[in-house]
């Protein structure tokens, strides 16, 4: 079957039979498009059992984040299962090679790159004020994207500079966000947001129609700003969370404190950032040594 037709039927299956949201289906579409950029097949019969494993290795070499690779792996597996079920391919899922034990350190920007990214939004526009506030809050607090987009007005204490976060498993934690982030958050709340149709909404960050922002939209905004300031690395909104953790550890922050701020239940997850931090410090030391 023609690949494009197979994708259309798959998305229809996700929407009608699985009841998935438009945003989720867009994520599937993006992942599949990335796959077919690497494997330029026209017909589903051309798909090989080794393709998923090869694609994941390609993504790892491009330094995609662990979360991105995991999501794309899930998207491809679901697509394969659908193709097999509909008899569009004859590659049983148990024959598909999935790389095991692959460890991948998240992509991290330098402090200078982060500053350029934060300064990219146009503060003369309401969406620029909003986006600057969102980027500042993410980098200052290490929120997950889902936590940022669902953040409610009642959970922000401007006086104390504290955000009360309802994270995974409905666990609550309090994280500080500092004066820089506060400055741009207040600017957004007192200007762009007051004129927004959804000014009375309990959700903090809104689109131009007064509705909560989608993950897909914010992802595209971050990509746009990264391109504007010449950042070549593959990044996403979640990159700022990685940067928050790594830069804190590079500044000698206690790993247990960082664990609590990130909302990690297992310190081994936070340990990943310590590994990145150590790698970056060693690279800097190596460069310093060569210049002596």
Explain what this protein looks like in three dimensions.
- There is one protein chain.
- With 292 residues, this protein is mainly alpha-helical.
- The longest helix is centred in the C-terminal third of the chain and has 25 residues, at 267-291.
- The chain folds into two domains: 3-95, Tyrosine recombinase, N-terminal domain (DNA polymerase, domain 1), CATH 1.10.150.130; 111-291, Intergrase catalytic core (hpI Integrase, Chain A), CATH 1.10.443.
- 57% of the residues lie in helices and 4% in strands.
- Strands 1-2-3 form a three-stranded antiparallel beta sheet, with no helix packed on it.
- It has helices at 3-16, 22-38, 51-61, 66-85, 111-118, 126-141, 145-149, 178-190, 215-228, 237-250, 255-262, 267-291, and strands at 156-157, 162-166, 172-176.
- The termini are far apart.
Concise structural overview:
By secondary structure, this protein is mainly alpha-helical. Helices cover 57% and strands 4% of the residues. The chain has twelve helices and three strands, in the order H-H-H-H-H-H-H-E-E-E-H-H-H-H-H.
Strand element count: 3
CATH architecture descriptor of the largest domain: Orthogonal Bundle
| Helix-strand topology string | HHHHHHHEEEHHHHH
| Beta-strand content | under 5%
Termini separation comes to 62 Å
Q: Superfamily at the CATH H level of the largest domain?
A: Intergrase catalytic core
